[in-house]
């Protein structure tokens, strides 16, 4: 059996990859994917902790996270389509009419 | 074999009443929107919904009820903050009513979307579990992403929305991961149970400064700090506030902050009183940085919307003082401050809306020149709002700031109170500059710019001015009221 520590370590690595992805990559779609990776690494940690304690609380939380992530992506992709129509790009650096 | 029986969950309508009613009502408004394009019907329905929701809070006011396995609570603090949020939402709808069609944004979905966001905020204010805090934060955020991008043929609005969404999703990642870590260390998601768990750690001699637990608390606070635009998590604020339709900016700058601060207050005071010295120190630094940064950068702004964005960052710093004081005084000062700030900021944005032409979205300070002559009433209202933001007596801004600083001082956060007073003096510079520009500079444009002080907007401005003056003239009534009305949070 794989220990809880291993799962939590993996989730921490995935979370870090997600954070770095949002900060470093400039393509909006990849940035969305990185955000998803952050959320899903948290899911992994929740499930691992939940299993270690033989409770279901963490797993239930996971369902809420999945639902919210889906809603967020729906809004995000709709916005992305409208931006792509206007500028023909998915690069966040080309989307800079506001001065940051 | 065991019999599997389906147990219907017990629904406690006292606890869930306010957010649930508003959510269902918003869906009804959405359905009505399919059959009528008359926005007067929609705004009337929306205002009725807000009123009934407020009345639901009054129905059981005073009792403290927990429901849904203590995931939600109905208490005095929650209802009081909810009332302020509902009042802010109603004012937002009034000032948006004529603005949206003027900017060619006539889709009726605006009203239900605002109600959805408000419902999420009410839920967040009443949340006493990490799971419900997460759901509340995300319900309000997703509705706000859409509202920010509501003017989407305008490129700025879409850009603001996608920036807000990316950074909001980033913050949500931190929130969930923080919750996972706290759950992993304590085995609980309920705020009160986390506190109990930590006190057993203390009695068994287990160290509280477990790095994973601290990281979890820190991650959750980063996410909430993002929502209230606390320095250094404020970077999105000026862009999003500038790009979003002005009524949405006004709404975001007050309501989101109020709800997220209420959640932060519960999170810190209910779950982690054991770590109070740590978070008071850390957040004291953040609060100081927020006040200094917001006020100093606001001085350099010539765009009014951006100036108000930075000023709202600064005001988040002041409100943070009330949260940090973590005393009854601090919490009642926080509610009074939230009320005063809601009225003042919405009023200030309402004046901008009254001046905002179609196709002239840029809003520079010089556009206000000669306003005192063109429409003296509007200029007078703006003067009241600016005095209140700066904290000049006898306005609500002065009374509420005084309460906040006193609470911080009494809680031994004297260095924060001093920084607060100094930065308030700095802030007077750019607020008074607006007043000087309005009354003492003449307009350079030869043809007069039209103003759009329509009936609903004037009503909103009037309500705000009366509220500010009332709180300002008789602050004791309100502070005593808040003290008497609030507080069951602290236990």
Automatic annotation (TrEMBL), chain A:
Keywords in alphabetical order: Cell membrane, Membrane, NAD, Oxidoreductase, Quinone, Translocase, Transmembrane, Transmembrane helix, Transport, Ubiquinone
Presence of keyword NAD: yes
Classification via Gene3D superfamilies: 1.10.287.3510
Main EC class the enzyme belongs to: translocase
Main location: membrane
Transmembrane segments: 6-24, 29-49, 61-84
GO cellular component terms, semicolon-separated: NADH dehydrogenase complex; plasma membrane
GO molecular function: NADH dehydrogenase (quinone) (non-electrogenic) activity; quinone binding
EC annotation from Swiss-Prot or TrEMBL: 7.1.1.-
Cited InterPro entries: NADH_UbQ_OxRdtase_chain4L/K, NUOK/Mnh_C1-like
Substrates-to-products reaction catalysed: a quinone + NADH + 5 H(+)(in) = a quinol + NAD(+) + 4 H(+)(out)
Example GO biological process: ATP synthesis coupled electron transport
Location of the protein in the cell: Cell membrane; Membrane
Pfam families: Oxidored_q2
NCBIfam families according to UniProt: PRK05715.1-2 (NF004320), PRK05715.1-3 (NF004321), PRK05715.1-5 (NF004323)
PANTHER family reported in the protein's UniProt record: NADH DEHYDROGENASE SUBUNIT 4L-RELATED, NADH-UBIQUINONE OXIDOREDUCTASE SUBUNIT ND4L
Biological role: NDH-1 shuttles electrons from NADH, via FMN and iron-sulfur (Fe-S) centers, to quinones in the respiratory chain. The immediate electron acceptor for the enzyme in this species is believed to be ubiquinone. Couples the redox reaction to proton translocation (for every two electrons transferred, four hydrogen ions are translocated across the cytoplasmic membrane), and thus conserves the redox energy in a proton gradient.
Subunit structure: NDH-1 is composed of 14 different subunits. Subunits NuoA, H, J, K, L, M, N constitute the membrane sector of the complex.
HAMAP family tied to this protein: NDH1_NuoK (MF_01456)
Family of this protein: Belongs to the complex I subunit 4L family.
Protein name: NADH-quinone oxidoreductase subunit K
Annotated organism of origin: Herpetosiphon geysericola
């Amino acid at each position: 059996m794989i220990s809880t520590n291993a799962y939590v370590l993996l989730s921490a690595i995935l979370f870090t990859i997600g954070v770095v992805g949002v900060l470093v990559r400039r393509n909006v779609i990849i940035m969305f994917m990185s955000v998803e990776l952050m959320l899903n690494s948290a899911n992994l940690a929740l499930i691992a902790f939940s299993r270690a304690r033989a409770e279901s609380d963490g797993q239930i939380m996971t369902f809420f996270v999945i639902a919210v992530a889906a809603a967020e992506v729906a809004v995000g992709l709709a916005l992305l389509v409208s931006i792509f129509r206007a500028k023909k790009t998915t690069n966040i650096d080309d989307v800079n009419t506001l001065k940051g | 074999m065991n019999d599997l029986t389906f147990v219907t969950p017990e629904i406690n309508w006292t606890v869930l009443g306010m957010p649930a009613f508003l959510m269902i009502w918003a869906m009804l408004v959405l359905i009505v929107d399919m059959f009528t394009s008359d926005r007067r019907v929609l705004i009337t329905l929306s205002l009725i919904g807000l009123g009934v929701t407020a009345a639901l809070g009054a129905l059981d006011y005073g009792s403290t009820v927990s429901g849904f396995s203590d995931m939600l609570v109905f208490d005095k603090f929650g209802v009081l903050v909810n009332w302020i949020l509902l009042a802010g939402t109603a004012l937002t709808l009034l000032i948006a009513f004529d603005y949206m069609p003027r900017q060619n944004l006539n889709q009726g979905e605006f009203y239900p979307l605002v109600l959805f966001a408000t419902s999420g905020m009410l839920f967040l204010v009443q949340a006493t579990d990490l799971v419900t805090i997460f759901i509340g934060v995300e319900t309000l955020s997703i509705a706000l992403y859409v509202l920010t991008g509501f003017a989407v043929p305008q490129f700025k609005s879409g850009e603001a929305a996608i920036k807000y969404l990316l950074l909001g999703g980033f913050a949500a990642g931190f929130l969930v991961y923080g919750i996972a870590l706290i759950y992993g260390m304590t085995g609980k998601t309920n705020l009160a149970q986390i506190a109990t768990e930590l006190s057993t750690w203390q009695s068994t001699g287990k160290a509280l400064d477990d790095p994973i637990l601290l990281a979890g608390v820190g991650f959750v606070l980063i996410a909430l700090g993002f929502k209230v635009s606390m320095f250094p998590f404020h970077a999105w604020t000026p862009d999003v506030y500038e790009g979003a339709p002005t009524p949405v900016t006004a709404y975001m700058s007050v309501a989101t902050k109020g709800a997220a601060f209420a959640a932060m207050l519960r999170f810190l005071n209910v779950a982690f009183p054991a770590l109070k010295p740590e978070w008071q120190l850390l957040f004291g630094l953040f609060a100081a940085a927020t006040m200094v940064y917001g006020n100093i950068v606001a001085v350099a702004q010539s765009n009014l919307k951006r100036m108000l964005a930075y000023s709202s960052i600064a005001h988040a710093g002041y409100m943070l003082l009330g949260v940090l004081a973590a005393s009854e005084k601090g919490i009642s000062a926080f509610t009074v401050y939230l009320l005063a700030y809601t009225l003042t900021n919405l009023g200030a944005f309402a004046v901008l809306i009254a001046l905002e032409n179609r196709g002239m979205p840029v809003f520079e300070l010089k556009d206000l020149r000669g306003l005192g002559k063109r429409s003296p009433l509007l200029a007078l209202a703006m003067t009241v709002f600016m005095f209140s933001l700066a904290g000049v007596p006898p306005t609500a801004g002065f009374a509420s700031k005084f309460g906040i600083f006193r609470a911080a001082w009494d809680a031994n956060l004297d260095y924060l109170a001093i920084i607060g007073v100094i930065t308030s003096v700095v802030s007077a510079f750019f607020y008074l500059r607006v007043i000087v520009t309005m009354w003492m500079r003449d307009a350079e444009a030869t043809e007069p710019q039209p103003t759009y002080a329509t009936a609903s907007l004037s009503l909103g401005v009037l309500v705000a001015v009366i509220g500010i003056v009332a709180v300002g003239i008789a602050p004791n009534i309100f502070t005593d009221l808040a003290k008497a009305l609030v507080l069951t949070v602290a236990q």
